[in-house]
Design a protein that fits this description.
The complex is a heterodimer of chains A (114) and B (109). Chain A has no helices and eleven strands. Chain A is an all-beta fold. Chain A is globular, with a radius of gyration of 13 Å. The model of chain A has no long low-confidence stretch (mean pLDDT 92). Chain B has 109 residues and is an all-beta fold. Chain B is built from no helices and eleven strands. In chain B, the strands form three sheets. In chain B, strands 2, 5, 6, 9, 10 and 11 form a six-stranded mixed beta sheet that branches. In chain B, strands 3-8-7 form a three-stranded antiparallel beta sheet, with no helix packed on it. The termini of chain B are far apart. Chains A and B meet through strand 4, strand 5, strand 9 and strand 10 of A and strand 5, strand 6, strand 9 and strand 10 of B.
């Protein structure tokens, strides 16, 4: 099992450009998440999907959109990138049917917006 | 509102010394707490969860509801423990998680 995979690993965008970060999991998990990791800020939840067909905002959703394409895939879209969106983005998944289940993380995407 | 506080950004200890990484939380419900670790060039992974009451890689963490704390402890630090550690709180119907800002543990040889 690959677990949680993310593409791309690195990306450089110019201000105003758009892009989609892809995430897939092969663990048959119900819940999926997108986080951003910034120095001194830790991990902050952008959006999550409790189950296929549902998405909800997290702590820092502005400037992002998400799509839960199916149970396996959860994508994050930046419509008009801004330098403030320079960060490392992590996708995660969990069984989601109990609070005692942990999250499994992808390797991250390092995004730089110039 | 729920919150997870890790007061130390960086904790430096000598090899063989005891380690305590602090985590305090605020949540009105019944907390589910976790410690995650991120080693250099590796993905974030679960270290331990309070409900399991287990010791992983020599680390333990006890939930203290009175002090709303979930400190991570290890009696003798090893160089391979150097990493970023995050405390996390699951709340609000399981799918919601709040992470602390993380503590970088540096074990000096």
């Amino acid at each position: 099992n690959a677990g949680v995979t993310q593409t791309p690993k690195f990306q450089v965008l110019k201000t105003g450009q758009s892009m989609t970060l892809q995430c897939a999991q092969d663990m048959n998990h119900n819940s999926m998440y997108w986080y951003r990791q910034d120095p001194g800020m830790g991990l902050r939840l952008i959006y999550y999907s409790a189950s296929e067909g549902t998405t909800d905002k997290g702590e820092v959703p502005n400037g992002y959109n998400v799509s839960r394409l199916n149970k396996r895939e959860f994508s994050l879209r930046l419509e008009s990138a801004a330098p403030s969106q320079t960060s490392v983005y992590f996708c995660a998944s969990s069984r989601g049917d109990s609070p005692s289940y942990e999250q499994y993380f992808g390797p991250g995407t390092r995004l730089t917006v110039t | 509102a729920q919150r997870v506080t890790q007061p130390e950004k960086l904790l430096s200890v000598f090899k063989g010394a005891p380690v305590e990484l602090k985590c305090n939380y605020s949540y009105s419900g019944s907390p589910e707490l976790f410690w995650y670790v991120q080693y250099s060039r590796q993905r974030l992974q679960l270290l331990l969860r309070h409900i399991s009451r287990e010791s992983i890689k020599g680390f333990t963490a006890d939930l203290n509801k009175g002090e709303t704390s979930f400190h991570l402890k290890k009696p003798f630090a090893q160089e391979e423990d150097s990493a970023m550690y995050y405390c996390a709180l699951n709340w609000g119907g399981y799918q919601k998680v709040t992470f602390g800002t993380g503590t970088k543990l540096q074990v000096i040889p």
